[in-house]
Amino acid sequence: xxxxLFAIAAICxxxxxxxxxxxxxxxxxxxxxxxxxxxxxxxxxxxNVPSDAIVLFDGKDMSAWNxxxxxxxxxxxxxxxxxxxxxxxVFGSIQLHVEFAxxxxxxxxxxxxxxSGVFYGPYEIQxxxxxxxxxYYDGQCGAxxxxxPPAVNACRKPxxxxxxxxxxxRPIFDGEKLVKPGxxxxxxxxxxxxxxxxxxxxxxxxxxxxxxxxxxxxxVRLQDHGNPVRFRNIWVREISDSPxxxxxxxxxxxxxxxxxxxx
Length: 263
Ligand code: MG
Description:
By secondary structure, the protein is mainly β. The protein has a single domain, classed as Sandwich (Jelly Rolls), CATH 2.60.120.560. The protein has one helix at residues 2-23, and strands at 54-57, 65-66, 72-74, 77-79, 85-87, 94-101, 116-120, 123-127, 162-169, 172-174, 177-180, 182-188, 191-199, 220-222, 230-238. The strands form three sheets. Strands 1, 3, 4, 6, 9, 12, 13 and 15 form an eight-stranded antiparallel sheet that branches. A five-stranded antiparallel sheet has the order 2-5-14-7-8, with no helix packed on it. Strands 10-11 form a two-stranded antiparallel ribbon. It binds magnesium ion (MG). Magnesium ion binds next to β7 and β8. Magnesium ion is lined by residues 115-117, 126-127, 223, 225.
C-alpha cells in the first residue's frame, strides 16, 4: 500500500514538474556569462534624495503603494511580503532609485534565492541574489528579465545594501501602434549594466516578449517572489520623453566654414 501511495505521489510530482516546465518560455539565445565586477563596499547610509524627487518609501510607511499594508516595515526597512506592491501614482518616463538587499541567510539556489523585481508597468529589472549563484544569464540580477543579461555582474554579497538607478523611457503608442520603442538604462551599485536597451515587450516567464499598448502612465511595481528581500530609500523623478525624431531627419554634421563666404 505504502509503495502504491509513493508511486502515485511520485507520478503526481513528475506531472507537476512537467506542467511547470512546459509553461516556461526560453529565448534559446546563448548568452555569454556576464563578468563579475566588484562595485566596492556597501554604502554606509542611504543615498541623498534630490529635491524634486517623489519619495515612494522613506522608511516610515508604504502609503504610496497599493498592497503596501502587506509588506512589513522593520527599523526603517520594508520586507517584500504578500503580493506585489504597485505605486498609487502612475508615471511617464522616469528616473528611479531603489535600494535593496537580498537575505543575508542564503537559502535556495538559482531563481529561488533572493528573488524580487523592480518593474515599470510590465517590464521587470530582475532582483536576485546573483553573488556566486548561477542561473540563466537573462534571468540574473540586473537582467531585463528574459530579454537581456546585465553587461556585468555587479552584485554585492547577500545581506549587503545595493542600489539600482534606472532610467525607463516609456514606449510611445498611437492607438495600438508603437511609434517609439521604450528603452531602459540601469546602474547597479554605480556600475552601468544596461545601456539604453530597447525594450522588446513584456517580461514574462511563460511568453516571448510582446509589445502591447498601454496607458501613457504606468506604476512602479515591486515583486513578491516568496523571498524576504529588503528595500529602503525608493524615489522617482518623472522625466520628459526624448523627442520623436524620424530617422530621415537625421542629417550628417556639416563642417563649420571658418573662412566665411568665398568670392
Ligand atoms: Mg523577479
